[in-house]
Amino acid sequence: MIGMLVFWGCPVRAVLRLAGGDLNAEVGLVGLVAGVAVGVWFLKSGFSLGRAVPQQKSNGYLFTAFMVVLFILLLAQVVVFVLLPQSHLN
After folding, report:
1. From residue 43, how far is each of 19, 28, 32, 34, 57 by CA, in Å?
2. Fewer beta carbons below 10 Å: N end or C end of the chain?
3. Integer Cα distance of 9 and 48 in angstroms
4. Quick one: what percent of the chain has pLDDT higher than 90?
5. Which residues fall within 8 angstroms of residue 4, CB to CB, at 6 or more apart?
6. For residue 24, with 0-12 CB atoms within 10 Å meaning exposed, 13-18 middle and 19 or more buried, which class applies?
7. Which residue has the higher pLDDT, 3 or 63?
8. CA 70 to CA 64: how far, in whole Å?
9. For residues 26 and 18, what is the distance between their CA atoms, to the nearest angstrom?
């Protein structure tokens, strides 16, 4: 079961949730089928990502730096809420 969930996690979990009575899983399965159908349509229409092109290392560092800045902003926001009195949060 674990090996199956590694490769087919989302569809299997959706079916298991549906089998357990969670009707919200129907929406997920419809979305999954629609996404696969759109992907197949694009592939049959000739869509291609093109060939792989080497990238500069700075491109990889850029996303990491952006995530670090977002994390720092998250921590700063938490500190602001902790330091404010309760009357300012409403």
Report:
1. 32, 22, 17, 14, 30
2. C
3. 26
4. 28
5. 12
6. exposed
7. 63
8. 10
9. 7
When mean pLDDT is compared across 1-10, 16-25, 51-60, 80-89, the lowest value belongs to 80-89
Is residue 82 scored above 70 in pLDDT?
no
Give tens-digit pLDDT for 3-47.
666 666 778 888 888 898 888 888 888 888 899 999 999 999 999
Burial label, 14 (beta-carbon count in 10 A; 0-12, 13-18, 19+): buried
Q: Can you tell me which residue has the tokens 């500190």?
A: 79
Query: In the chain, what are the domain boundaries?
Result: 2-48+58-84
SS (HEC) of the chain: CHHHHHHHHHHHHHHHHHHCCCCHHHHHHHHHHHHHHHHHHHHHCCCCCCCCCCCCHHHHHHHHHHHHHHHHHHHHHHHHHHHCCHHHHC
